[in-house]
Design brief:
By secondary structure, this protein is α+β, with helices and mostly antiparallel strands. Helices cover 53% and strands 12% of the residues. The protein has helices at 5-60, 105-120, 124-137, 141-157, 161-169, 179-193, 198-203, 209-221, 228-252, 287-293, 335-396, 403-435, 448-464, 484-501, 559-569; strands at 74-77, 261-265, 268-274, 280-285, 301-303, 313-316, 319-321, 443-446, 468-472, 479-482, 507-515, 518-525, 573-577, 587-593. It has a five-stranded mixed β-sheet. Helix 2 (105-120) packs antiparallel against helix 3 (124-137), helix 3 (124-137) runs antiparallel to helix 4 (141-157) and helix 4 runs parallel beside helix 6 (179-193). The mean pLDDT is 78.
């Protein structure tokens, strides 16, 4: 005797649980080993990190590190603790204030008259002549230089390049000490030669950054080239000012008290190395630069305000060393991998258990359905067999002397035989369809003869139950590709379902109509009908309406399922729909497509 599938599934579940337990025990042991190995590796890594941090601290306290820093990173301070500012930087925190230009009444009147003549009257030559005349009328060298510069700009606006150059040559360089005059003269000189004077390379980086960039933009707008190196130099000087400000803040805090010191300001590290006689030297740079001065690799360090709080070993302000584990660990000694494997194992075990329980549940449900199916089929077979036996005995014993009654009994025998044959054919067809062995003989033929044949075969059964079968067809020429026997069988199954639920003495209707390329067959009874939420489920195998699952109406829930499968195999469809009027009942609509060819 073969074991049942449910027993096999149960045994499989026990095996899975046992195997899962053994694997879990093994993995837990591996995890314990991995945790021990990880703790040992972390201790070794932290010891190496502390050694590297000590190496960096020692290097940053050695004055020799200044030799590794660049000239722009090194600074000095005097005996009074003041930062020695390099000349190319010019200023540290704010540029020096620009003095106002004091003009005499004669110079101011000459400027107003020149502006009126040039911009209001439009007489630029007269404006230029008036400015040149005013130069001779003033006595101050600064005023003369100011008026000459205004006259040169007036000539530039008028396109008088020779006059512009002549006026520029009359301006003594030593009189252009005022920054605004100096910038204006530099711009005119750049326009004269189409390049900046060499003195501008030194002067411009010392200007306020906004003023310097605005000046470069104005020169670029006038077509002066070669400005990019100067723009980069301005940025370099501004960056150096930021470094020196950080160093100055540390010096002001009193950190240079006679011993080497290390501090951080504004994201920079500041190294101080005082001298015995006073003053000293130092270096200022980013944490990465300080690590490179020490000859170490910055990638081994964590940099930032939170460097020490992230589990690293503090080495200097803003710098910590992160412990690194060696590469000797394998996935089997790494607790993270073992934990992941445990999670995967637990998930697989749960899935296997779920699948096993679902298999057991499906087998149990299938066994129940098979049992109900066999019980229903047995009952369905007994009913026509008992009727056939009773009618045959009555005819054989001569207990039906009336010819009309004998003819009726013969029709009943034929009907019960057809009903029995239909039930047997349904059971056989179910097996063939499940195995994919149901064969069809398809050809193009008229649809209505098959419908009429099914009605003729079913009429005796309907009349036996006191039902009237009303058939109305519409288009005898409509053709479809179909297997006639399969279509007849499908219609008989639908009619048999209608017969069971029709009211005694009622009607069964078959209506056929052709619409374009679709032929529609409507089969209707006038019984209790089908609830809207069950119009799809009644086509499931072994499924019956909820109101009749108690066996009050015979059946196994197979006829409608087979009917739909047969019709769909023929290219059509079978659906349960709502009644078209208020008379109620169940309505089934079968649709068949027209044949694309007309071969008979």
């Amino acid at each position: 005797m073969k074991p049942s599938r449910s027993r096999i599934a149960s045994l499989l579940g026990i095996v899975m649980v046992s195997a899962g337990g053994l694997l879990a025990f093994g993995l837990l042991s591996l995890r314990r080993t991995a945790e021990d190995a990880r703790a040992s590796a972390l201790m070794e890594a932290r010891a190496a990190a502390e050694a590297l941090a000590g190496q960096l601290r020692q290097a940053l306290k050695d004055p020799a590190i200044l030799e590794q820093a660049g000239p722009e990173e090194v600074f000095a301070w005097d005996a009074e603790g003041r930062l020695v500012l390099p000349p190319e930087v010019g200023w540290l925190r704010a540029p020096p204030p620009e003095p106002d230009i004091l003009l005499s009444r004669t110079a101011r009147r000459a400027l107003r008259q020149a502006e009126d003549r040039e911009f209001i009257e439009g007489d630029r030559p007269a404006a230029l002549q008036g400015l040149v005349a005013a130069v001779e009328a003033v006595s101050s060298p600064d005023e003369r230089s100011f008026l000459l510069l205004r006259a040169a700009w007036c000539a530039e606006r008028g396109g008088l390049t020779k006059e512009r150059d002549r006026l520029l040559d009359r301006i003594p360089t030593e009189t252009l000490t005022e920054p605004t005059l100096h910038r204006s003269a530099l711009l005119l000189q750049a326009l004269r030669r189409q390049r900046l004077p060499e003195s501008a390379v030194v002067d411009l980086p010392r200007w306020p950054p906004d003023t310097a960039h605005a000046f470069l933009a104005r020169m670029a707008a006038h077509g002066v080239g070669g400005l990019e190196p100067l723009r980069q130099q301005i940025e370099d000087v501004q960056g150096r000012r930021r470094r020196l400000r950080a160093a100055d803040d540390v010096l002001r805090s009193g950190a240079a008290d006679g011993a080497p010191a290390l501090a951080s300001r504004e994201g920079f590290l500041v190294l101080l190395f005082p001298k015995r006689e006073g003053g000293g030297r130092g270096a200022v740079g980013s944490p990465e630069e300080a690590i490179r001065w020490a000859g170490l690799d910055p990638q081994r360090f964590r940099i930032g305000d939170d460097a020490s709080s992230s589990g690293g070993v503090p080495a200097a302000p803003l710098i910590a060393v992160l412990p690194r584990r060696g590469n000797a660990s394998s996935p089997w000694t790494d607790s993270r991998w073992v934990s992941l494997l445990l999670l995967v194992l637990a998930g697989s075990f749960c899935l296997g258990l779920i699948f096993t329980l679902r298999a057991v549940r499906r087998e149990t449900e299938a066994a129940r359905v098979r049992s109900e199916f066999l019980t229903g089929v047995t009952h369905e077979l007994k009913t026509p067999l008992a009727s056939i036996r009773l009618l045959a005995e009555m005819l054989e014993e001569g207990r039906v002397p009336d010819d009309a009654r004998r003819a009726t009994y013969h029709r009943l025998l034929s009907g019960e035989s057809a009903r029995l044959g239909m039930l047997i054919e349904n059971v056989l067809d179910l097996g063939r369809m499940e195995r994919g062995e149901r064969a069809y003989t398809l050809r193009t033929q008229a649809v209505e003869p098959a419908i009429q044949e099914a009605a003729d075969l079913f009429r005796p059964l309907a009349e036996r139950d006191g039902l009237r079968l009303d058939v109305a067809l519409a288009d005898p020429e409509f053709k479809a590709v179909l297997d006639r026997s399969a279509l007849v069988q499908a219609l008989l199954n639908v009619l048999e379902n209608a017969r069971k639920y029709a009211l005694e003495g009622g009607n069964l209707e078959i209506r056929g109509r052709a619409e374009k390329d679709i032929y529609t067959v409507l089969v209707r009874d006038f019984g209790p009908g089908i609830p809207s939420d069950e119009r799809e489920s009644v086509f499931e195998r072994f499924r019956r309406g909820a109101a009749h699952q108690d066996g009050s109406i015979s059946g196994v829930g197979l006829g409608l399922h087979l009917a739909r499968r047969l019709v769909r195999d023929l290219g059509g469809d079978l659906r349960a729909v709502a009644p078209p009027d208020e008379k109620g009942g169940a309505c089934f609509v079968m649709t068949l497509p027209r044949s694309e060819t007309h071969d008979s």
